[in-house]
């Protein structure tokens, strides 16, 4: 332990390292539980950052205005001892909602919310149904599917593509670009990953910049045109804000939703009693979706940096230190979810999980993600009563901690 650090600092860096760099064998929830039980407000010895794993502490931190976003703090975290030294992805310095603080965040969020309305999301429902039917038709013809590549990628990318106004022929390229951006946000990413992310960010900015120019010239019934039209008093999105926002909506909306679908189908197929329960009572679908979000949260990490000393869970975190909130750990905290917090229960209610974060950065796309997940799960269960995991080794989790998802998920659809 380094001098000047609180007692216990660094004592569980073995657990932390395996969480941040990937858990061998994939039992992340077990390691999160061990850290939560051993040191719920934990000061790492790897650098100036703290790790919160209890629900109450994570929620308090996410809602605390003294814990803010900031590109310098991201740099502090990912270049801290214990991590390979490297640059910070350029996207963390862009005026994207996720990286902004009030008052800029407040202004931008209000403008974006005015264009990305619940009504605009609900209006997508018929298209979500049609796209789902097309994808399931194609899979049915094969008799089997690799869920992530055949279904879980295509649904969100097509839905967001239509929402934003990206023509179908342009959508395929985004899988690699968004994946490159996501990988570089992982604490364990290397310099090559950051270079690839910056290149991907440039290509997306150029693409969406051209799309904005096009929609300014000839507006259509899509989100880019709606955001161009938003005005609140004398406020309007600048061109750069618009390009960055559209890129964010596009990126934030599919890696995450893809993992909701993949994690959800895997959970249902590996808990046959819960699958059966949901088939018998489809009215449980909304609680089942929330239980998937809780149990295998697609985004595991959130956080910010302290602007002054902040006391959380009885421990005072000094000014200027990074606070990592581990959403997946909070989502299995028995203090909130009871003694069966580790049980996957499709009827769980209430379910105050933090998978969409909490506070001012609460996910703007939660309604859209729920819509896509519920349509896909409903139709796949209805249509394939014999759906099951394909024989073979169990699916593997992708390395990394920010996004939690499977490498691939092979299923047999049955007759
Ligand atoms: C299951 C799917 C999803 C999950 C688990 C998820 C999770 C999250 C989380 C944890 C945050 C907070 C990030 C932070 O504070 O750094 C967030 C923010 C955000 N999400 Fe999602 N998300 C999902 C789907 C979507 C979709 C479909 C969209 C849009 C099409 C979207 C757009 C956004 C945006 C714009 C923000 C930033 C909000 C702000 O900073 O004010 N997300 N999401």
Characterization of the model:
- The chain is of the alpha+beta class.
- It has a single domain (13-412), classed as Cytochrome p450 (Orthogonal Bundle), CATH 1.10.630.
- It is 51% helix and 8% strand.
- It contains 18 helices and ten strands.
- It has a five-stranded mixed sheet, sandwiched between helices.
- Helix 7 runs parallel beside helix 18 (366-383), helix 13 (239-270) packs parallel to helix 18 and helix 15 (285-295) crosses helix 18.
- The radius of gyration is 21 Å and the shape is globular.
- The protein binds protoporphyrin IX containing FE.
- The site of protoporphyrin IX containing FE has 23 residues, from helix 13 and helix 18.
- Protoporphyrin IX containing FE (HEM) is lined by residues 97-98, 109, 160, 248-249, 252-253, 256-257, 260, 298-299, 302, 355-357, 361, 363-365, 368-369.
Lay out the secondary structure.
Layout: H1 13-21, H2 28-38, E1 41-43, E2 49-52, H3 55-62, E3 67-68, H4 71-78, H5 104-115, H6 118-122, H7 125-142, E4 144-146, H8 147-152, H9 154-164, H10 174-184, H11 191-217, H12 223-229, H13 239-270, H14 272-280, H15 285-295, E5 301-306, E6 310-312, E7 315-317, E8 322-326, H16 327-330, H17 334-337, H18 366-383, E9 388-389, E10 410-412
Parallel strand pairs: 2-8
Antiparallel strand pairs: 1-2, 3-5, 4-10, 5-8, 6-7, 9-10
Helix pairs in contact: 1-2, 5-12, 7-9, 7-18, 9-13, 10-11, 10-13, 11-13, 13-18, 15-18
Bound molecules: protoporphyrin IX containing FE.
CATH homologous superfamily identity = Cytochrome P450
How far from one another are the termini? 60 Å
Largest sheet: 5 strands, mixed
- Which kinds of small molecule does this entry bind, naming each only once? protoporphyrin IX containing FE
